[in-house]
Design brief:
The chain is an alpha/beta fold and 328 residues long. Helix content is 29%, strand content 23%. The chain contains 9 helices and 14 strands. Mean pLDDT is 75; it is low at 92-124 and 136-164.
């Protein structure tokens, strides 16, 4: 069985703090998100490994057990021991025929907990190494599709039982498209499901309040929104910015181009003759909705990038040479 170096997977030192572990996880998770890597099996595998590493290192009890196991495993290998002969009876689930303990742990705070949604590219699938070490018993019940369990297990963000009436703050990440149209999240709290609406126009830092739904007592639950970066659009307040390639001939002679919008429908934009690369065009009302006033929208700024023609034929080179001679 292959040993998993969770610290190496997350790219953090073994003495990393909880905050450093969380920061490293979020940074890599954005790059490996399935929406940013459609059809990329390698990224999907790294995504699963990342989620597994965070599940272990973000939980003090799991991390402590993993650190103790790693030390013993290292000594075993240095002594020339074979992995298949390692004694698992003292660690998690026993090897076949053994009677090792099978500890139970809280619901895993996997990628789905942080980014919302349900069933994201097998984020909750753990390796044989994890199953062997932790007994394959992660969480007291399976998570239903589309439901985020924010109130179970060893979540250090939840207040203690003695902190009656305290508020609970839960981070959640949404896409830029969801920030534009609004989003819905289902959360499991004990035997109830809570449906939370994230309003259109939400930005990073927006807090959505559910009165009386804190982890304990009469406190409130606050969903702390973080909007993920988009592969094509850049957000600036309620405005959006996008780069649009145009050919040299349209830039010189003028014409029309299609400008993509966040909603998917392209907008026809007229390009005047002699438009330089880097010129910006404003499309009114094609940006993000304003928080609390969804009918009011920002603008979309399109920056054109002139593309130089490649692989010219001899005739084209001659024509360009003639043009240069005329201009000089």
């Amino acid at each position: 069985m292959q040993y998993k170096d969770y610290y190496e997977i997350l790219g953090v030192p073994r003495e990393a703090t909880d905050q450093e572990i969380k920061k490293a996880f979020r940074s890599q998770a954005r790059k490996l998100h399935p929406d940013a890597n459609p059809g990329n099996k390698q990224a999907e595998g790294q995504f699963k490994e990342l989620n597994e590493a965070y599940e272990v290192l973000s939980d003090p009890e799991k991390r402590n057990l993993y650190n103790r196991f790693g030390s013993e495993w290292s000594h075993w290998q240095q002594a020339g021991g074979r992995p298949e002969d390692f004694d698992w009876t003292s660690w998690g689930r026993a090897a076949p025929g053994g009677r090792g303990p099978s500890p139970q742990y809280g619901t895993p705070r996997d990628f789905e907990d942080l980014f919302g949604g349900g069933g994201t590219a097998g984020a909750g699938t753990f390796s044989d190494f994890f199953q062997q070490l932790f007994g394959g018993a992660v969480g007291g019940r399976r998570r239903s599709p589309g439901v985020d369990t924010f109130f179970g297990g060893f979540d250090e963000r939840a207040p203690s039982r003695s902190s009656v009436g305290r508020d609970t703050e839960q981070p959640v990440q949404i896409t830029l498209e969801e920030a534009s149209t609004g989003a819905k999240r289902l959360l499991q709290k004990e035997q109830r499901r809570l449906e939370i609406q994230i309003p259109p126009g939400a930005t990073t830092g927006t807090r959505v309040r559910l009165a009386g739904e804190g982890a304990t007592g009469a406190g409130d639950l606050y969903l702390l929104v973080e909007v993920l970066p988009h592969a094509r659009f850049e957000r600036d307040g309620d405005d959006l910015r996008v780069k649009v390639p145009i050919d040299l001939y349209t830039a010189v002679l003028g014409g029309e181009i299609n400008v993509p919008t966040l909603g998917g429908r392209a907008v026809l934009l007229r390009i005047p003759p002699e438009t330089p690369s880097g010129a910006k065009f404003r499309l009114r009302g094609k940006g993000m909705p304003q928080l609390g006033r969804a009918e009011q929208r920002g603008d979309l700024y399109a920056t054109v990038e002139v593309q130089i023609p490649q692989q010219l034929t001899e005739q084209e080179r001659e024509l360009f040479s003639q043009l240069r001679a005329l201009r000089s």
